């Protein structure tokens, strides 16, 4: 009897197991079947017939990627007050059902990768990495947006109005005409600033530095007066702080060493690296950092810390850091949690970082390199069978009225209107919290506050930083763009040598820059030259050569 | 007794050579041999299966698991020899150039890969050299402790770090070893010994890396040796005492030979990992000053494969790594058998 029972049990287990295996293919197999007819009906101009007054006669549904920042006290990025606003609007105006797919902000490339490989990628995908899209496109995983953009131009007035042909066809291949991705608009291209402690300058009776020499003397003055500035904590003094990302964190200093005579062509050919490491003159800029480091003017332990480490921020908040170069609004961000707010809490109400412009180039101007007006890249994976509905979605969120609401939210809740019409941002918690500043994750076609009026924008921007005096913001905004130069785009199509090289070359760059800053001064040339040689041999030179050849092919006929 | 239980006990005895050690060795091997070499083998095997088929039925479950989740996905190894495409199945992808070996050639002509290969071998070898004897020595020391309670407390403290993730250990290392603010360096400075660049200088970094590895795993690895030591017959120690052997004599002539099979087994398994590489330990501990020694194969795969989307290249490197590991495993096992040990299988 027992034997029979045990045999029966084993048999049940087996059946269960087989059923488990069997159900897997069974559940996946119908999905291609259901998608096939949808594809055939939506292809080409058959769609027009089903569209009345830009509204589908039959409800369509699309999926849209949204960044998940996992912010404290945030709402689910795929289902909250603002997504409901979009969902209702899309259903009302275009009869399109929208589902959001959350993707981790800091692991977006890896996650999108998995989704694409599984055939589950959202219909509208967003990423900051164009090389990623190019790689997918080469594998046949991306839809060519070109034909749709051209065919449906009349149906997309807001999208064309906001992004213009420039951003929409930014990535158009000059030979094949393919458009793998459109570029969102970078509305505010302020980039980087040099900050110094305003209260320390006052204490030491120093003027704001306006030249490299004055800046250097200021750093020495900070170091020599550590006792006065920090008292018992004098040992903690850091006149200038930096991170492993030298190219970003010394940007204004390095840019001042680039000859003003550099042509756009040179800039393009040597422009693969987004930290401009291949531009002429950079080496001498890094030499200055090397001198400072060996003189003890730079934070001595910076080379231990990697991306995302908050040690340096904490040193700034604690009041040990005299100056640094970073994102144009870095100390003013994050309200109560920000650097300026904490600094004033811990040190005193006078303590503040103020933006300065000390680095002039050989032509005597405060040259810095600003970004082109492009931001995130939006693409449709090849599994997207609703290209028109997807484009209508992009059109809908590009409409001023809609994106304005998404950026500033409800009056009296997330913003208040000042007497002069400027919008002041209010901190909010609960269901109407914005998970990203100005809901940048939902307004995927634009980055930067735009209320439709330039004057209003400037005023509102200064009020966009809760708890920070507007004069700091206005000044930072102005200096960040002062004497800026934008290298125009040269559209030569894909550079094959760049494929897959970005991360490897970027980490090589960071390594040798850090080593060049930290080595003894007499070894600087050797370390730099070896590092640069390695960078060029590992793919850098191939990229330069291909860029030069492509440039000659398309622009020097 | 129910038949199933009886069968289970039989099987346990039958399969003993694989799992059990020493004591019962003699008679079980005899049993195996007799079963395999007796004349009525075919009939016996049939009788055997007739009796135990339910157990084999049970075995089907784990076997199915391994086949479905470990063997079937393995065909994707083919992408090491193919041009990877995200939208094609592995059979449809075109073969890579150079008879499919394009990516192997690419890897071996890549300076970063060769550097990573060197670092992997160097760090693993040093780990083996310093890290392998450490738990044996600690186990011997613990075994000699006369107070059981003190022994237990020491052992617990020693194996606790095993549960810390490398991210936490790396954070602690920065707090302790940072050149200008680290606790250890402050202490060294106060003693007039000067500051040491534990984490910024390549040579010191390697030492710190190995040291932290031992610190993290020594206690945990001791457990298996201590278990082996308890299996040694106490009469042997008594006999040795009668012959006038001291502590060191007993350690050398009884304890160490007693745990030798365990040591050999673990050594073979470690050799099988000589080219394997952890990711979090070197990744968390490394920084931009020591990249030339901290860049190991797993980091190379991450950087080029996952971040750079060069899946075929990363798979080729991974396959190479696995093949070398398997070769080492077999070679070490064969060597161990040659020297009279039992080996892993």
From TrEMBL, chain A:
Signal sequence range: 1-19
Chain spans, region Disordered: 23-49
Short name of any one Pfam family annotated for the protein: SBP_bac_8
Keywords: Cell membrane, Lipoprotein, Membrane, Palmitate, Signal
InterPro entries hit by this protein: Bact_solute-bd_prot1, SBP
Compositional bias annotation for Low complexity: 23-43
PROSITE patterns to which the protein is assigned, alphabetical: PROKAR_LIPOPROTEIN (PS51257)
Name of the protein in question: Carbohydrate ABC transporter substrate-binding protein, CUT1 family
Organism: Thermoclostridium caenicola
UniProtKB/TrEMBL annotation, chain B:
Gene Ontology biological-process entries: transmembrane transport
Domain ABC transmembrane type-1: 117-332
Membrane topology note: Multi-pass membrane protein
Pfam hit, one: BPD_transp_1
Keywords assigned: Cell membrane, Membrane, Transmembrane, Transmembrane helix, Transport
TM stretches of this protein: 53-72, 121-142, 163-184, 204-233, 254-275, 311-336
Location in the cell: Cell membrane
GO cellular component, one term: plasma membrane
Family matches, as InterPro entries: MetI-like (IPR000515), MetI-like_sf (IPR035906), UgpAE/MalFG_permease (IPR050809)
Tree of life domain: Bacteria
PROSITE patterns xref list: ABC_TM1
Family that this chain belongs to: Belongs to the binding-protein-dependent transport system permease family.
Protein name, as recorded: Putative aldouronate transport system permease protein
Record lineage: Bacteria, Bacillati, Bacillota, Clostridia, Eubacteriales
């Amino acid at each position: 009897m027992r034997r029979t029972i045990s045999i029966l049990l084993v048999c049940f287990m087996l059946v269960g197991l087989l059923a488990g295996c069997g159900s897997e293919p069974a559940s996946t197999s119908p999905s291609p079947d259901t998608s096939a007819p949808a594809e055939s009906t939506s292809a080409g101009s058959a769609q027009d017939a089903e569209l009345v007054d830009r509204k589908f006669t039959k409800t369509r549904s699309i999926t849209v990627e949204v960044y998940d920042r996992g912010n404290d006290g945030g709402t689910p990025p795929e289902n909250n007050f603002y997504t409901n606003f979009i969902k209702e609007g899309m259903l009302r105006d275009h009869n399109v059902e929208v589902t959001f797919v959350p993707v981790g902000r800091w692991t977006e490339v890896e996650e999108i990768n998995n989704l694409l490989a599984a055939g589950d990628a959202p219909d509208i995908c967003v990423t900051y990495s164009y090389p990623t899209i190019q790689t997918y496109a080469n594998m046949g995983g991306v839809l060519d947006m070109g034909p749709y953009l051209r065919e449906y131009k009349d149906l997309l007035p807001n999208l064309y109005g906001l992004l213009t042909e420039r951003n929409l066809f930014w990535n158009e291949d000059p030979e094949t005409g393919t458009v793998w991705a459109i570029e969102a608009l970078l509305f505010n291209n302020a980039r980087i600033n040099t900050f110094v402690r305003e209260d320390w300058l006052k204490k030491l009776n120093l003027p704001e530095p306006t030249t490299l020499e004055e800046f250097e003397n200021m750093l020495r003055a900070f170091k020599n007066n550590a006792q006065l500035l920090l008292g018992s904590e004098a040992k903690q003094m850091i006149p200038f702080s930096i991170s492993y990302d030298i190219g970003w964190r010394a940007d204004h200093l390095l840019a001042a060493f680039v000859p003003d005579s550099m042509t756009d062509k040179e800039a393009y050919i040597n422009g693969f690296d987004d930290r401009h490491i291949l531009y002429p003159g950079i080496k001498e800029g890094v030499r200055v950092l090397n001198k400072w480091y060996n003189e003890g003017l730079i934070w001595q332990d910076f080379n231990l810390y990697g991306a995302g480490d908050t040690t340096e921020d904490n040193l700034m908040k604690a009041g040990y850091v005299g100056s640094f170069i970073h994102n144009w609004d870095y100390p003013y961000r994050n309200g109560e949690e920000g650097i300026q707010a904490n600094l004033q809490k811990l040190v005193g109400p006078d303590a503040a970082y103020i933006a300065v412009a000390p680095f002039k180039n050989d032509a005597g101007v405060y040259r810095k390199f600003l970004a082109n007006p492009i931001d995130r890249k939006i693409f449709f994976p090849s599994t997207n069978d609703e290209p028109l509905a997807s484009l209508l979605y992009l059109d809908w969120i590009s409409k001023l009225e809609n994106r304005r609401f998404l950026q500033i939210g409800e009056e009296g809740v997330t913003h208040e209107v000042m007497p002069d019409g400027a919008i002041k941002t209010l901190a909010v918690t609960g269901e109407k919290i914005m998970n990203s500043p100005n809901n940048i994750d939902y307004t995927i076609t634009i980055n930067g506050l735009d209320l439709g009026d330039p004057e209003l924008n400037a005023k509102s921007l200064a009020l966009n930083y809760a708890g920070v005096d507007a004069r700091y913001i206005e000044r930072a905004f102005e200096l960040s763009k002062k004497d800026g130069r934008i290298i125009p785009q040269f559209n030569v199509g894909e550079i094959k040598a760049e494929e897959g090289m970005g991360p490897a070359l970027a980490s090589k760059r960071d390594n040798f820059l850090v080593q060049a800053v930290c080595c003894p001064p007499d070894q600087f040339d050797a370390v730099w030259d070896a590092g640069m040689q390695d960078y060029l041999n590992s793919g850098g030179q191939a990229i330069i050569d291909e860029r030069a050849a492509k440039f000659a092919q398309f622009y020097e006929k | 007794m129910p038949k199933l239980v009886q069968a289970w006990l039989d099987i346990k005895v039958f399969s003993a050579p694989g799992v059990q050690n020493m004591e019962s060795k003699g008679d079980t091997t005899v049993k195996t041999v007799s079963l395999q070499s007796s004349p009525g083998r075919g009939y016996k095997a049939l009788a055997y299966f007739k009796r135990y088929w339910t157990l084999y039925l049970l075995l089907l479950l784990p076997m199915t698991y391994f086949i479905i989740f470990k063997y079937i996905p393995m065909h994707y190894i083919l992408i090491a020899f193919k041009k990877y495409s995200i939208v094609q199945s592995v059979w449809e992808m075109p073969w890579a150039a150079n008879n499919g070996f394009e990516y192997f050639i690419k890897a071996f002509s890549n300076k970063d890969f060769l550097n990573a290969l060197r670092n992997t071998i160097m760090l693993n070898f040093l780990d083996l050299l310093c890290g392998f004897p450490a738990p044996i020595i600690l186990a011997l020391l613990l075994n000699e402790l006369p107070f059981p309670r003190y022994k237990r407390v020491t052992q617990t403290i020693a194996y606790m770090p095993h549960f810390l993730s490398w991210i936490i250990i790396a954070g602690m290392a920065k707090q302790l070893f940072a050149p200008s603010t680290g606790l250890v360096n402050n202490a060294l400075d106060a003693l007039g010994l000067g500051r040491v660049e534990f984490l910024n200088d390549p040579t010191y970094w390697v030492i710190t890396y190995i040291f932290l590895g031992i610190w993290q795993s020594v206690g945990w690895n001791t457990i298996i040796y201590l278990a082996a030591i308890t299996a040694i017959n106490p009469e042997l120690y008594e006999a040795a005492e009668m012959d006038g052997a001291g502590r060191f004599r007993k350690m050398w002539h009884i304890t160490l030979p007693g745990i030798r099979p365990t040591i050999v087994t673990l050594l073979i398994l470690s050799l099988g990992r000589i080219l394997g590489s952890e990711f979090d330990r070197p990744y968390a501990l490394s920084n931009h000053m020591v990249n030339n020694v901290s860049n190991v194969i797993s980091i190379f795969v991450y950087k080029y494969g996952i971040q750079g989307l060069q899946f075929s290249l990363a798979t080729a490197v991974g396959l190479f790594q696995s093949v070398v590991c398997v070769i080492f495993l077999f070679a070490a096992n064969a060597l161990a058998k040659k020297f009279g040990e039992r080996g892993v299988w």
